[in-house]
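Internal ticket - ligand job 302, adenosine-5'-diphosphate:
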Amino acid sequence: MALLTVENLSKQYDNSLVVNQTSFQFESGKCVALIGPNGAGKTTTLRMLSGLLKPTSGTITFDDMKQNADIRGNIGYLPQHPVFFKWMTGQEFLIYVGRLANLSKQEAESRAERLLDCVGLTESAKRRIGKYSGGMKQRLGIAQAMIHQPKLLILDEPVSSLDPIGRRDVLTLMEELKKDMTILFSTHILSDADEVSDELLLLHEGRIVESGSMTELRDKYQTAKIELGFDGDLHKYKEQITDLPAVTDCYIERDLLHVNIQDMAAARHNILAIASAQEWPLTSFAINRASLEDMFMKAVNG
Ligand code: ADP
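stdout (structure tokens):
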């Protein structure tokens, strides 16, 4: 059963429909990336799912709850630009948000301690947040979002504004968290989605234009091409490769033989078999995989 089901969700501001009849669902235990360029409608979608923004139309169903029920108790949300009291320590801040979430003082203290450990901030627990780096603040923000033990963690662009070290720390934390939690996060940086997510939702101009696991999308958008490098003259091999049954055509460009194929498994086998039998001086053999960027462009342009 799906943990979250979104059907025909729309948001209109004045005359502009910024989220347009969006539908998707995902199961518990997944790490789902909502990807799209700036202005695609990611923040608007996540704010509606978090209960911070009222949809113009459509339904949101969480787990076995009623359609459009108040699901805020099940959701932990990290906004794109979280705001902290700089004068508080990380520990004080988490106890404070724990108390706001109606935890007893003792419970807030023990959960703050556990969460500081979980996000790797135990040693900095008593430092003022104003002295934290961007990555540390983002990790504190993730701890804050988890204070009430939500079933779903929603993170809006959690790494986009961070320097490489902060980015690496937060991506590593997300890798750890996704073992125990369901995560939905947005990003416009495709390589981040590629790195940590199990499932992808591609959002363009307020609509989901494609969705699925990375493997499913790779299969669908596979460019079906192999590139070969040789020591010496490439022309000697071109004709023999073109004659192989799984190959449609073959051309030379930038010191590589580009082989368009019908059947990846057969072509790989045939090329490697002939190269081995005739002792070809192969220097490289690369299957050209569709990048997430290629997939996005194809999904958008049809
Ligand atoms: P993303 O997170 O993908 O960058 P947003 O959801 O922030 O996209 O914005 C989607 C579109 O909605 C943008 O064109 C933005 O200008 C517009 N928008 C967002 N919030 C408002 C608002 N409160 N009033 C009017 N337009 C808005």
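Auto-summary: The chain has two domains: 4-219, 222-301. Residues 48 and 54 are 6 Å apart (CA to CA).
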